[in-house]
Design goal:
Elements (H helix, E strand, L loop, with lengths): L1 H23 L8 H4 L1 H13 L3 H8 L3 H8 L1 H4 L1 H4 L37
Helix pairs in contact: 3-4, 4-5
Amino acid sequence: MFAEFERSMIRERVTAGLSRNKADGIQLGRRRMEDSDADKVAAIVAARAKGTGIRRIARELGVGVGTVLRVTGEARLGASAAGRFRRPLPPRVARPVSALPNDCRAPQRVRLLPAHSEG
């Protein structure tokens, strides 16, 4: 019973402190890399403009893949921006099933019948 009361008092103090900081305009949490390291942001943008892959940029610069996507703007633009840096896919050709080799076809279902016992 006392623990619940104490926990509710802690919760009230925390929410009061958060709302006071919000009213004062204080932003809580870790600063974004875009705000703190302009050199790294420029390196990410330059590497991506050269066509370097997202994972390679992240590995070489020591940042996350999500950070590279956020800095380059590809996370917001989605596939339309990502498509600029990819090789185009070959056109799909519809082929009839009979043109596929036997090992590519789906296996046929075989119905097993119970063995007949004589006698």
